[in-house]
Amino acid sequence: MKHLLPELPYALEALEPAMSRETLEFHYGKHLQTYIDNLNRLIQGTPFEDSSLEEIIMKADGGILNNAAQTWNHTFFFKGLTPSQPEIPQRLLKAIEKAFGSFEEFKTQFTQTAVSLFGSGWAWLVSDGDGRLSIASEPNAGNPMRKGLRPLLTVDVWEHAYYIDYRNRRADYLNAWWSLVDWNAVDGLLG
Question: Nearest to residue 150, comparing CAs of 120, 186, 126, 132?
């Protein structure tokens, strides 16, 4: 199975000013494409040649895992963004309030997790097998599916995600990112 660059559900400039066209040209068009190209090259002639990204993430290690996870993580990240942010659906809001006490407390904890992740990686809103929500962080190409958790929302805190627009100001990037979250997409993953 050849893995391909997914189409974005919005134009490259649609997320401005929070996320510039230039950032998407590099982050989506170059970084993600490189992970996909590397993955396709690495899986040739291996048991993973015809596997889905999810299967590779759950079974592979080394370079194959890293490139598959980065392909999946980035695709999930980009598909969770929107230029026209909807209100948070009541079902999702109630689940967040149940888990964190309030939406503001969730936002504070999630932002703190993302800001304080040392080096590169991802902050995630996840659900366990019983539907309980929690926040997780994963360094580098980590993906919470390997721990039996279902991803609902993620933010990329690798420097390439924000350096063009925000330089070394990760907190400013996160503040802008909150305005791009597609709450309908998150709600649709609750199950």
Answer: 126
Q: Per-residue pLDDT tens for 39-66?
A: 999 999 999 999 999 999 999 999 999 9
Q: Give every CB contact of residue 6 below 8 A, 6+ residues apart in sequence.
A: 75, 78, 79
With b for 16 or more beta-carbon neighbours within 10 A and e for fewer, the 54-67 pattern comes to eebbeebeeebbbb
Q: What is the CATH number of the domain that holds 174?
A: 3.55.40.20
Task: State whether residue 155 is helix, strand or coil.
Answer: strand
What's the total number of domains in the chain? 2
The predicted structure's pLDDT at residue 59: 97
Question: Do 121 and 57 fall into the same domain?
Answer: no
Q: How far apart are CA 153 and CA 92, in angstroms?
A: 12
Which pLDDT does position 191 carry in this prediction?
79
CA atoms within 13 Å, Cβ hemisphere of 82:
13
182 with 97, same domain: the answer is: yes
CATH of the domain at 67: 1.10.287.990
Closest CA to 36 of 74, 9, 10: 74
